[in-house]
Amino acid sequence: xxxxxxxxxxxxxxxxxxxxxxxxxxxxxxxxxxxxxxxxxxxxxxxxxxxxxxxxxxxxxxxxxxxxxxxxxxxxxxxxxxxxxxxxxxxxxxxxxxxxxxxxxxxxxxxxxxxxxxxxxxxxxxxxxxxxxxxxxxxxxxxxxxxxxxxxxxxxxxxxxxxxxxxxxxxxxxxxxxxxxxxxxxxxxxxxxxxxxxxxxxxxxxxxxxxxxxxxxxxxxxxxxxxxxxxxxxxxxxxxxxxxxxxxxxxxxxxxxxxxxxxxxxxxxxxxxxxxx
Amino acid sequence: xxxxxxxxxxxxxxxxxxxxxxxxxxxxxxxxxxxxxxxxxxxxxxxxxxxxxxxxxxxxxxxxxxxxxxxxxxxxxxxxxxxxxxxxxxxxxxxxxxxxxxxxxxxxxxxxxxxxxxxxx
Lengths: 277, 121
Fold this sequence. Notes:
The complex is a heterodimer.
Chain A: H1 13-40, H2 43-51, H3 54-87, H4 93-99, H5 102-105, H6 108-119, H7 126-131, H8 140-164, H9 168-176, H10 181-210, H11 213-219, H12 229-238, H13 242-276
Helix pairs in contact in A: 1-13, 3-8, 3-10, 6-8, 6-11, 8-10, 8-11, 9-10, 10-13, 12-13
Chain B: H1 2-18, H2 22-51, H3 55-64, H4 66-96, H5 103-116
Helix pairs in contact in B: 4-5
């Protein structure tokens, strides 16, 4: 363990670290810090008023709730899709593999318009669902659908390399020690996949929180009902209320940062436990 | 006779121990395929149906518009600049991470986390 602490295995640590910090500062940290600086212009009372208005609070609940549901759906189905892609051979597998990246490449506004026409009451999927009494477009359910579409590649592409690099010998060893298939999967395969799975979930969740383009068309954007926080921020920006917009953005950012930090800690702890065992 | 009776159940157990029953496999494949059909294939088909709704001529005319062309050019150019920059950053960021205890964790905790954020499209 002590030996591993040396960085000298790879040369150029200082250069790489310096470049990483510079790039990270220019692209992420400096723009982010201006966010807090801008919102500070409101003063504490004004800030509090801006971020706790009922319409804003309703949008937090919707955004975080829908993002969480979408990330959970992606967590379950992303795991199934990854498992099937990596472990089984069936016709159309390669096509399916290529298709997973499609939400990454499609401009989000196009995704939004397409999903809206699909799930509108007269759309291909909206019409049959409407007959069943399920409304998707212009409801929170529609938001979940759009966020699920956007988040799927994060879970699959994070899990895939880990599942591929998992040694089959480990499962064979479990089997020779008397574990049945279910036990092997639950107690040998899943613990190895868990850190990557959590990361994929967190990435999908984080992306969903900030997602704007694909949601605004399908959401309907009714205040208090289907208005997401990013839309509220854009609305305020269009009214030249920069301080109000950045105040809401700062709250969302801090909340999602705390959530992601918690998820990341869970992930690194389980990674450490996984390697200790 | 006695040897085959001994061998056969062992072979069955070995097969079952490292893979799932056919029924489970089929169910999982069906679940994955129907999820992807619903969430990816149907929207993909819808995009192309909408694009060609007014026929090939309208599609090509829309593509040939000077504004569309310059937008396409700009998108390709900016992506062409941003992607190498992020690639460089991603390699540098990964480089700074000490060799972790196992290779599996380098893949998930390191690269997944960092490349996902700054480079999310």
